[in-house]
Amino acid sequence: MSATQAPAGPLRTPAGLPRLPRLPRQTLLPRQRAEEQSERKQQALAVGAFLLSAQFPGQGHAEALDRTVSTTVAAELAGLDSVWLAEHHFVPYGTCPSATTLAALLLGRTRQIRVGTAVSVLPTQHPVALGEQAALLHLTSGGRFTLGVGRGGPWIDLDVFDAGLEAFEHGFPESLDLLLRWLRSSRVGAEGARYRFPEVPVVPRATETPTPQRFADTLAEGHDGRRVGGGPPVIVACTSLGSVRLAAQRGLPMLLGMHADDEEKAGMVAAYRAAALEAGRTPDQVERVEAQHVSAGVAQVEDGSATAARRRLLRTMPGFFQYGLAAHRTVDGRERRMRDPQAYTELLCDLHPVGTARTCADRLAATAERTGIRRFALLVEGSGDREATLENVRRLGGEVLPQLS
Predict the structure, then answer these.
(1) Given the DSSP bridges, would you call strands 219-220 and 120-121 parallel, antiparallel or unpaired?
(2) What does the pLDDT look like over 316-364, one tens digit per residue?
(3) 126: burial class by Cβ within 10 Å (0-12, 13-18, 19+)?
(4) CA distances from 138 to 110, 143, 156, 234, 309 (A)
């Protein structure tokens, strides 16, 4: 998820928490669907961990990756719904260059929790190769894998992997459509602007029902106890109305970035609904997909007061942002605007569950109420410390989640 676009700051209360603005009346569901909306609000929220594999100043790559592996195991033990893995190249902002490879390891280390990519960057890899990896993970994990995809940024990666700026600026729809055909078909050929090849068989086919995972002492069939067929879920990182429309037209849920406030996310959900209905999808179809939208954020749970958690993140995250984001290099030398690290950390603390367990639960419930999004991917490694991250995950699962059920 890009952290280089500067969002508008939130309104604040005297206590320092964001005051949630009124949403436009037109973003509400029609009256005849109010009963269905009320029932949906009673469903429990699904809370997962978002892991950058961030290299904080003074740390090595192995230390950052080890923290991700340990945090995933802890997240499963804490009862979190999922972990979401970021993918970056050549920068300390994230040390994982292949989210699918790391997902394979983590699916083998766990038994129930879902593992997703947030995101696999499509312009720098072949959609068929990514589709093959996704099918493999889906079929061998008992259906616990989710493929998140995105456009990425105009970074030097495009040059290194011989993709070119065109792939970033205009090639994402073609890549996404080819990927979806690969995940949903038995034979695929391509006659596009970027990809052309004769029809070939799809092996392995993601549409087959996954075999339940077998362990030495138990049998696992997926995070919810059911076998999952029809291919892995696919979700699209959306940072603009163009990407919102693209996801809606394909019937795919959105992953919305941690820089956006509740009002902005609610507006994107409303735009998604309008685009999906315009594309010919029924209200029931739209509502089923909307239930799978994911909101990215930050979580830090501390005792005492909301200021304790805030102080912890303000000690570590500005330095990390300065170190990690400054390393990004554009492919064509274009000027890029970097957020002020201190102000960005303050913004994230304002927008997301940072504080006591009660404060965090209230913040998540408020976001769900305002946006309609009930699934979360929360950055839990903001302290930069392995043990503090594991404790944060334990408290998120043990103290925050029970207040949301």
Answers:
(1) unpaired
(2) 999 999 999 999 999 999 888 889 999 999 999 999 999 999 999 999 9
(3) middle
(4) 14, 5, 31, 11, 37
Within 10 angstroms of residue 379's Cβ, the number of other Cβ atoms is 24
Question: What is the pLDDT, as a whole number, of residue 220?
Answer: 53
Q: Reduce the DSSP state of residue 323 to 3 states and report it.
A: helix
State residue 327 phi and psi, 5-degree precision: -80, -15
State whether residue 48 is helix, strand or coil: strand
Contact 146, 113 (CB under 8 A): no
Q: What is the DSSP string of 69-103?
A: HHHHHHHHHTT-SEEEE---SSSTT---S-HHHHH
Helix (H, G, I), strand (E, B) or coil at 377: strand
Query: Average pLDDT of 111-136?
Result: 98
30 token code pair: 């029609």
Q: Which helix (H) or strand (E) holds 375?
A: strand 375-379
Hunting for tokens 């879920």 — which residue is that? 233
The answer to whether 139 and 204 have CB atoms below 8 angstroms apart is yes
Query: What is the rounded (10 degree) CA torsion for 301, 351, 363, 366?
Result: -170
CB 375 within 8 A of CB 46: yes
User: Which residues neighbour 401 within 8 Å (Cβ) at sequence distance 6 or greater?
Assistant: 47, 78, 79, 80
Please give the Cα distance from 41 to 267 (Å, whole number): 18
**pLDDT tens by residue, 275-302:** 999 999 999 999 999 999 999 999 999 9
CATH architecture of the domain with range 25-403: Alpha-Beta Barrel (3.20)
Asked whether residue 26 carries a pLDDT value surpassing 80, the answer given is: no
Average pLDDT score over residue span 150-155: 97
